[in-house]
Structures are given as structure tokens and as C-alpha cells.
């Protein structure tokens, strides 16, 4: 059931944002050859910057990262120790979500993720 999805696209970034520096370096070294033909420096720097931003703001809005024309809003679901154990994500066609609606969806996704806090 389901399929494996990468941690450097869409909601996967919620989990990757929690990687330690060493874990992220290892992930970048493993994935960069597939993504960038081995050019991991610039791709890795961009990914690190994105993950730092996601960690700081507590959510991720993805546009076309997995499917062209699609967008998603994701927030982490944390356990009592604050570790990320899941994510709540809402996806839609980008053209169907106005900027005001995007902000409303973001508030709802963040609220739902906090309400689900796992023990």
C-alpha cells in the first residue's frame, strides 16, 4: 500500500528538517547523484537553507515539488518530547488555491498538527 517518497520534496521536508547536520550531509551525498548528476554542493546548500527555514517557521508550502501544478501545505506532528513523528498535509491544484485561502489552510493545518500531538 502506498509508495516510498523522497524526503527532499513536499511533506518529506518536514521530516528532513529534523535531521542532524551529519544525517543531512549523508542524505545529500546519497541523493545528489540522482537529483543533480553528482553536483551536491549547490543542491545541498539550497536544501539546507530550505530545511532551516521550514524548521524555523514550523511548516512547509510546496509548489510543484512532486507534481507539476499541485501544491501542498504540511506541518509536523510532534510527540511529547517534541520529536516529529508524522505530518498533516493538505494538497490541491495550485490554480484552485488563492493566496488568502492558502493562509487559511495553513492556519488549519498547523492547528490540526498541534491537536494531534502524539504521546
From TrEMBL:
It holds the Pfam family IclR_C. Residues 1-119 form the IclR-ED domain. InterPro entries: GAF-like_dom_sf, HTH_MetabolicPath_Reg, Tscrpt_reg_IclR_C. It comes from the Bacteria. This is IclR-ED domain-containing protein. It comes from Brevibacterium sediminis.
Amino acid at each position: 500500500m502506498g509508495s516510498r517518497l523522497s524526503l527532499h520534496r513536499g511533506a518529506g521536508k518536514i521530516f528532513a528538517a529534523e535531521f542532524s547536520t551529519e544525517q543531512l550531509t549523508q542524505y545529500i551525498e546519497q541523493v545528489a547523484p540522482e537529483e543533480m548528476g553528482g553536483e551536491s554542493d549547490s543542491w545541498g546548500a539550497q536544501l539546507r537553507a530550505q530545511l532551516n527555514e521550514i524548521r524555523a517557521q514550523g511548516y512547509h508550502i510546496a509548489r510543484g515539488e512532486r507534481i507539476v501544478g499541485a501544491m501542498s501545505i504540511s506541518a509536523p506532528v510532534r510527540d511529547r518530547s517534541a520529536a516529529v513523528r508524522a505530518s498533516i498535509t493538505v494538497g490541491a491544484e495550485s490554480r484552485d488555491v488563492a493566496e488568502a485561502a492558502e493562509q487559511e489552510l495553513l492556519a488549519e493545518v498547523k492547528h490540526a498538527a498541534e491537536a494531534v500531538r502524539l504521546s
